[in-house]
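[audit] Reproducing an earlier prediction to check determinism. Same input, same settings, fresh worker. If the tokens differ from the archived copy the diff job will pick it up downstream; this log only records the rerun itself.
[audit] input (569 residues):
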Amino acid sequence: MEQLRKAVARLIDGQTTLQALIDRENRDPRRGIGHENLLTQIQLDEHSHRLIAQQNLSLESVIATGKVIYLKSTANLSTGGTATDVTEDVHPEVKYAAERIARLVGLDIIGIDLLAETLTVPLEEQSAAVVEVNAGPGFRMHLSPTHGTGRDVGHHVIEMLFPDKEDTGRIPIVAVTGTNGKTTTVRLISHLLRQAGGCVGTACTGAIEIDNHVIMRGDYSGPQAAVTVLREPTVEYAVLEVARGGIMRRGLGFDECQVGVLLNIESDHLGENDIHTLDELARCKTVVIDAVHQEGTAVLNADDPRVLASREWARGKVIYFSLDSDSEPVREHVQDHGVAFTVHDECIVMRQGNVEASIISVGDTPITFEGHARFNVANALAASAAAYALGLSIADIQLGLQTFHPTPGQNPGRTNFIDAGDIKVLIDYGHNVPALKALSELVSRIPAQRRISVASAPGNRRDEDLYALGAQLASMHDIVLLCETAPRGRPVGETVGLLRAGAESESGTCRVEVIMDERHAVDRAFDEAREGDLLVLLIEDIESATERLRGRRFLPDTPTADSDAGGRT
């Protein structure tokens, strides 16, 4: 519309008569008689003369600059009108309304004449009406619009009439990588797809699942897990966690993916596989978005400078996600009609061009803990973007976000909050400093007399990383019980010794104890806990901990919220 106003402003110079302006416009080489060209000549008929007279004008009137003159009561190409393509500014709810009309009428090819104030907001929020449904719509306005991008609609019609019979056997693959949040994002994407009716194969740090059935338990974030999922004949979507170690040792396990998600680049595993800097780690993880199919989508965290810089490696379309709705990269991307998922007025929204589609309130998204777990808000944005790239509707995404809960049943070991009466328990797998810093905001917001943590760390981290992790643990808690679960090449006791040294270096009143065995450390935490305390269990054996919660009557004998149907434990 703005382009059209500028064109009119250039045309009307305040010195030319209406007839001369019409003659000048008809000299446009794109205009012809009837449908012979892209546009049609403006022909003045009796109705046109009546409209001109109603505006107190004649063909000899000199038209003032900026004035709008009506020559027709319709805006059809066949009467001399112009066309502006606004495809990328159509609100998803308007698109859905048009698709529904087509289904109700029962036509495969349909033209819908819609009168509306704007297409950037849902129809129910404005004055709008359908005035005509056409079984034989014209294509020329779409092929070569006067303003905007041309759309080859004829190609899509031919594809519908004569579909390509070749079946390559490929299914859409979503590959998720980054330092933190991979497992939660993978599980949430899988949940969104299942809720929309898809049969999903999932591989992540925790298990391989086929259509919500666990077939293998363990750390399956490498290429062999991808092979296992992709061999399953019933799978319609594969959602795969991709870890740095698997990439460096054996690659991806697939040649290309439909959607690649890069969540963040943080300090973890540095010093392994000749990766010593964050920039080197970023280049390793960009392998995932470099493997996106040319017609696929890369989902990138616009809040992370290294992820943002990795766009040069991304193939296919790009969707940004960001917690900052005023982020300059996001604004520029959206203005260029790119898609972005962000938070506006504490709602998760999708933006593109002039469209902002509200999906769900952050407070109604269970894994965000009413917005206090900002890291899970970011994971929800990333999952929404991936689902949208696969064709899920805004309504599908809303339902999925609304029914995915931070329970041991739906997201085991990832920010599971259990209100056990006298005490509260938070179970998570934060094993690096950035993850714990993100978690600390949530921990500090949960009311508690004391905060007691059980924690460990894999031994294949640098000394300085383990020391910093211990200091971070002490800064968040009143009591820290340290154990050792995976020395990974270090002498027994060395890893926990570095954690303890870091924790004791933190000034404050935190009490630090070493209890080597994780089960004994968890039991010690239960024994230590008093009414009003919060236990933060950063552990590996989730099932054992939840069973002991039940054994101590902190939990009911039968879980009530472990299914995808929702509910909190």
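[audit] rerun output stored. Observation attached for the diff report: The CA atoms of residues 30 and 38 lie 5 Å apart.
[audit] end
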